[in-house]
Amino acid sequence: MTQQIHKLEDSLASCNRCGLCHGCSPLLEVQRLESSTARGKIRLAQSLIRGELDASDTLVNRIYECLMCGHCSSTCPAGIRVEEIIQETRTALVSARKTPRTLRSIASKINLSGNIYGKEIEGPDLPDSELVYFPGCVSSIKHPELANATISCLSSAGLGVTVLKGICCGAPAWAAGFTEVYDKISEKLQTVLEDKNVVTSCPQCYYFLKKIRHIQVQHVTQTYTEMSDKRKLRPLKPIKGTHTYFDPCYLARFSNIVDEPRAVIAHIRKFKLVEMESNRKNAKCCGNGLGLGQTSYPELSSKVARKRVGEALNIGAETVVTSCPHCYMTLRKVGRARRPQVEIKDISQLLEEACMLPSSTRKQTTKISVVG
Q: Is 258 helix (H, G, I), strand (E, B) or coil?
């Protein structure tokens, strides 16, 4: 293990322990532990490398509890990429067979079936199409209402869409340290999607397809902005009330997409948008952690999510709109339990409602092919 993460020593040594990462840590809010912070986790990684600590269950949990939201990296004066340190440390823990059972199960499902839920799908064979919609695991399997709303909006804008459903981008495997599994599925996707115009509603899929594999892809909010500006999407129905927008980590911090979702919302009549205290690139994580937090540490994930929903309530928001299926799933779980309840809505659902699109719209307009 020491040999595998030895190359990280320079980055680990760069931490001057200033503590600026404490103010942005979503875990510190709920755990109140030094090991909840980037500084604490870096110290654990250092101690692991030096042989000062064994890979105990406690240490493994602290390393895997990290949400990899990138907030600490964006504030670090030394420029340390904490999420990369965590990922490399997790890769070493995988090699040492020191990983949570739930994450071994996720990696196995991705490896065998191509998605985090273990649902068998046929190999992708994409026909010629104007646009390929890549929903990712959550929208195509766990919450298909999100994919349906997205397809409805895209097709109503006159776009011919092929849907590549039930396939993971590989991000959860990468985040968990199972790099071989990630490489296998991402290389396959790169072959399938190269030279295609791709749109996805998942920020993690967007980041890993575009930034890592250099596939030509837009996040759906970018596509909606273009279509709205061309008046191909016409949100004529007023939506009243007080609402807020929740910035997903991998859309705002990692991909710098913060204006487009708000531009889409601005087209909706009577829609009163109030900003949360932490917003745009400074928005705090929902607690999902690339699907790993909610899977392996559901109680901790829910505590973080309750903080975010509480932040929305503090500004009087009745609805939280987001543009990430992972945020939608995590916030929705706790939002329904709050009194008063907070409605969690995906931006595609919001736009579908504002455009008054019936569920049959996607069948009545341009060509829709479903692959998978």
A: coil
What are 347's two structure tokens? 């931006």
**CB 343 within 8 Å of CB 335:** yes
- CA pair distance 343, 334, nearest whole angstrom: 10
**Cα–Cα distance for residue pair 226/264, rounded to 1 Å:** 9
pTM: 0.92
**363 band by pLDDT with thresholds 50, 70 and 90:** very low
Instruction: Write the CA distances from 121 to 9, 135, 145, 234, 371, integer angstroms.
Output: 42, 14, 19, 35, 9
- In whole angstroms, what is the distance from residue 122 CA to residue 125 CA? 9
Domains of the chain: 2-99 (1.10.1060.10), 115-372 (no CATH)
**Using CA atoms, how far apart are residues 166 and 168, in angstroms rounded to an integer?**
7
Number of alpha helices (DSSP H) and beta strands (DSSP E) in the chain = 21, 9
Contact 39, 22 (CB under 8 A): yes
Q: Which of 7-21, 201-215, 241-255, 326-340 has the highest mean pLDDT?
A: 241-255
pLDDT at 10: 72
Neighbours of 196 (CB within 10 A): 18
Q: Whole-angstrom Cα distance, residue 55 to residue 64?
A: 12
